């Protein structure tokens, strides 16, 4: 992402600043569970370590920032419209479902909801659209759109605060101005959107239920949202795993979801996006029960499906955006950020990818990092799947590989500062709330920068590839 190079520091100065920054993280709750401590993923307040972070914000030319922000409300609206077209979702994913059991299970729930004509009048989307700046074409291209469990609204806001604080203190020395780090209210804006959804639901005694994994080292990112919900809105959040929902949940005759004696206004998923979250049928029946209830689901099964990589690829086909958006200007803006995306029923593109695998990324229908296939593995996988025949290829999409320019960065992990060449990925959060015909919220809601050493293919922070970052706006 970085187009202008951030200032170089001598190692001693960088090390000293990293110590200061790590202390700031501890004091301000910019923390995650430490892998070294077994209990850190299950017992709050035990085994904390500062979240991995970049010492200085990644540089980004302001026009790209504005472009990404402008796209947020358009993507919010697009997700909503696509979600309402059940046939489009079922058709687009029909081949994938034959070969991908996880997608098939999600589609099954979706089909059941279509069959009973389930109406979701109140719809909440808390998305994050991720981009990289392609250095060859100098264009901002979308990596993916996350419609479920978009992480780091809580900690991401804190990284922006950290960077502003460090620059205020050391900026003159570094030649940086703190005002060029855009304010980032992702945490309060997401909490606000959840609170307004709760208000639209209009049952004072109801709670917000966060669906969590049984083990979660990123729990403080989630607790930040609960804290804002309680402090600023007086709303209680309960945390439940899918299996707890199955054990403690029921639907009352009027559709109300009752879990552990609490009426639930909003189900906010921070789990449920990977097959690992469904080790038995119990988790699937919990998912179905919540979907059948009157609680607002963030995301609903339809919103979840719109965020799959297959749908991203379908939307990039000619004349598909036109089905969902009227404004030519908006269509152009969205299309401009689409990288090359192909389904694997295209023999020509498979041939090209086998010849030049370094120019592509092969993606299965998975979320959470660590699933993509690159380089020689990509070639081998394509050749093998082609030989196997059948529909195996339908489990994947192929994407143009984006090459961001690398620049010098200081990545701090576990109290140690590493200097190296790094690339960044910009995530823009979007919040969308609708009640029937009334759009209550449709806005850009802060951002997240993630930076990783340029030699790494993958990007997840939780998965251990990247660090949290913010951004520094430059003139060009
Ligand atoms: N087209 C691409 N070009 C370059 N890197 C990519 C591309 N697509 C994905 N990546 C890298 O792989 C990571 C994971 O891919 P992504 O599509 O975001 O899947 P996930 O759902 O696992 O987050 C991204 O964060 C990014 O670093
Ligand atoms: Mg991603």
TrEMBL record:
<dbReference type="GO" id="GO:0000287">
    <property type="term" value="F:magnesium ion binding"/>
</dbReference>
<feature type="domain" description="Glutathione synthase substrate-binding">
    <location>
        <begin position="206"/>
        <end position="306"/>
    </location>
</feature>
<feature type="binding site">
    <location>
        <position position="450"/>
    </location>
    <ligand>
        <name>substrate</name>
    </ligand>
</feature>
<feature type="binding site">
    <location>
        <position position="144"/>
    </location>
    <ligand>
        <name>ATP</name>
    </ligand>
</feature>
<comment type="subunit">
    <text>Homodimer.</text>
</comment>
<feature type="binding site">
    <location>
        <position position="222"/>
    </location>
    <ligand>
        <name>substrate</name>
    </ligand>
</feature>
<dbReference type="InterPro" id="IPR004887">
    <property type="entry name" value="GSH_synth_subst-bd"/>
</dbReference>
<keyword id="KW-0934">Plastid</keyword>
<dbReference type="GO" id="GO:0004363">
    <property type="term" value="F:glutathione synthase activity"/>
</dbReference>
<feature type="binding site">
    <location>
        <position position="452"/>
    </location>
    <ligand>
        <name>ATP</name>
    </ligand>
</feature>
<feature type="binding site">
    <location>
        <begin position="148"/>
        <end position="151"/>
    </location>
    <ligand>
        <name>substrate</name>
    </ligand>
</feature>
<dbReference type="GO" id="GO:0005829">
    <property type="term" value="C:cytosol"/>
</dbReference>
<dbReference type="GO" id="GO:0043295">
    <property type="term" value="F:glutathione binding"/>
</dbReference>
<feature type="binding site">
    <location>
        <begin position="461"/>
        <end position="462"/>
    </location>
    <ligand>
        <name>substrate</name>
    </ligand>
</feature>
<dbReference type="GO" id="GO:0005524">
    <property type="term" value="F:ATP binding"/>
</dbReference>
<dbReference type="InterPro" id="IPR005615">
    <property type="entry name" value="Glutathione_synthase"/>
</dbReference>
<dbReference type="InterPro" id="IPR014709">
    <property type="entry name" value="Glutathione_synthase_C_euk"/>
</dbReference>
<feature type="binding site">
    <location>
        <position position="128"/>
    </location>
    <ligand>
        <name>substrate</name>
    </ligand>
</feature>
<feature type="binding site">
    <location>
        <position position="425"/>
    </location>
    <ligand>
        <name>ATP</name>
    </ligand>
</feature>
<dbReference type="Pfam" id="PF03917">
    <property type="entry name" value="GSH_synth_ATP"/>
</dbReference>
<comment type="pathway">
    <text>Sulfur metabolism; glutathione biosynthesis; glutathione from L-cysteine and L-glutamate: step 2/2.</text>
</comment>
<keyword id="KW-0809">Transit peptide</keyword>
<dbReference type="InterPro" id="IPR016185">
    <property type="entry name" value="PreATP-grasp_dom_sf"/>
</dbReference>
<feature type="binding site">
    <location>
        <begin position="216"/>
        <end position="218"/>
    </location>
    <ligand>
        <name>substrate</name>
    </ligand>
</feature>
<dbReference type="InterPro" id="IPR014049">
    <property type="entry name" value="Glutathione_synthase_N_euk"/>
</dbReference>
<dbReference type="Pfam" id="PF03199">
    <property type="entry name" value="GSH_synthase"/>
</dbReference>
<keyword id="KW-0479">Metal-binding</keyword>
<feature type="binding site">
    <location>
        <begin position="399"/>
        <end position="402"/>
    </location>
    <ligand>
        <name>ATP</name>
    </ligand>
</feature>
<feature type="binding site">
    <location>
        <position position="374"/>
    </location>
    <ligand>
        <name>ATP</name>
    </ligand>
</feature>
<keyword id="KW-0317">Glutathione biosynthesis</keyword>
<feature type="binding site">
    <location>
        <position position="144"/>
    </location>
    <ligand>
        <name>Mg(2+)</name>
    </ligand>
</feature>
<protein>
    <recommendedName>
        <fullName>Glutathione synthetase</fullName>
        <ecNumber>6.3.2.3</ecNumber>
    </recommendedName>
</protein>
<keyword id="KW-0547">Nucleotide-binding</keyword>
<keyword id="KW-0067">ATP-binding</keyword>
<dbReference type="InterPro" id="IPR014042">
    <property type="entry name" value="Glutathione_synthase_a-hlx"/>
</dbReference>
<keyword id="KW-0150">Chloroplast</keyword>
<feature type="binding site">
    <location>
        <position position="367"/>
    </location>
    <ligand>
        <name>Mg(2+)</name>
    </ligand>
</feature>
<feature type="binding site">
    <location>
        <position position="458"/>
    </location>
    <ligand>
        <name>ATP</name>
    </ligand>
</feature>
<dbReference type="GO" id="GO:0009507">
    <property type="term" value="C:chloroplast"/>
</dbReference>
<feature type="binding site">
    <location>
        <position position="309"/>
    </location>
    <ligand>
        <name>ATP</name>
    </ligand>
</feature>
<feature type="binding site">
    <location>
        <begin position="363"/>
        <end position="372"/>
    </location>
    <ligand>
        <name>ATP</name>
    </ligand>
</feature>
<keyword id="KW-0436">Ligase</keyword>
């Amino acid at each position: 992402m970085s187009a202008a190079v951030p200032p170089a520091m001598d190692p001693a100065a960088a090390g000293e600043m990293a110590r200061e920054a790590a202390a700031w993280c501890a004091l301000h709750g910019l923390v995650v569970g430490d892998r070294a401590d077994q209990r850190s993923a299950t017992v709050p307040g035990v085994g904390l370590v500062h979240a991995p972070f970049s010492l200085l914000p990644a540089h980004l030319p302001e026009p790209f920032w504005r472009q990404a922000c402008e796209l947020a409300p358009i993507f919010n609206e697009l997700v909503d419209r696509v979600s309402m077209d059940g046939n489009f979702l079922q058709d687009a994913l029909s081949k994938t479902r034959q070969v991908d059991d996880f997608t098939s299970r999600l589609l099954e729930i979706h089909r059941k909801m279509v069959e009973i004509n389930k109406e979701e009048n109140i719809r909440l989307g808390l998305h994050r659209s991720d981009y990289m700046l392609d250095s060859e074409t100098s264009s901002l291209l979308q990596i993916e759109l996350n419609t479920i469990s978009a992480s780091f609204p809580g900690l991401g806001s804190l990284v922006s605060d950290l960077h502003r604080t460090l620059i205020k203190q050391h900026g003159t020395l570094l030649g940086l101005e703190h005002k060029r780090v855009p304010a980032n209210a992702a945490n309060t804006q997401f909490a606000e959107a959840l609170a307004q959804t709760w208000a639209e639901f209009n049952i004072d005694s109801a709670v917000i239920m966060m669906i969590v994994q049984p083990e979660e080292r990123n729990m403080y990112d989630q607790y930040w949202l609960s804290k804002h919900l309680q402090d600023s809105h007086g709303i209680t959040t309960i945390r439940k795993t899918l299996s707890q929902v199955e054990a403690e949940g029921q639907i009352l005759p009027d559709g109300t979801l009752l879990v552990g004696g609490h009426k639930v206004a909003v189900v906010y998923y921070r789990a449920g996006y990977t097959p690992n979250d469904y080790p038995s049928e119990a988790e699937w029946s919990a998912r179905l029960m919540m979907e059948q209830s009157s609680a607002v689901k963030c995301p609903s099964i339809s919103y979840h499906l719109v965020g799959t990589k297959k749908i991203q690829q379908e939307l990039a086909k000619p004349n598909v955006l036109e089905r969902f958006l009227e404004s030519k200007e908006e269509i152009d803006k969205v299309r401009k950020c689409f990288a090359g995306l192909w389904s694997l029923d295209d023999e020509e593109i498979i041939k090209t990818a086998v010849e030049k695998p370094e120019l592509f990324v092969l993606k299965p229908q998975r979320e959470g990092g660590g699933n993509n296939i690159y380089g020689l593995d990509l070639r081998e996988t394509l050749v093998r799947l082609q030989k196997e025949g059948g529909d195996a290829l339908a489990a994947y999409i192929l994407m143009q590989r984006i090459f961001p320019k690398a620049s010098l960065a200081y990545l701090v992990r576990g109290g140690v500062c590493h200097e190296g060449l790094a690339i960044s990925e910009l995530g823009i959060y979007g919040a969308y709330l609708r009640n029937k015909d009334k759009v209550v919220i449709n806005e850009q809601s802060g951002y997240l920068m993630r930076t990783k050493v340029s030699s790494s293919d993958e990007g997840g922070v939780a998965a251990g590839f990247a660090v949290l970052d913010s951004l520094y706006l430059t003139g060009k």
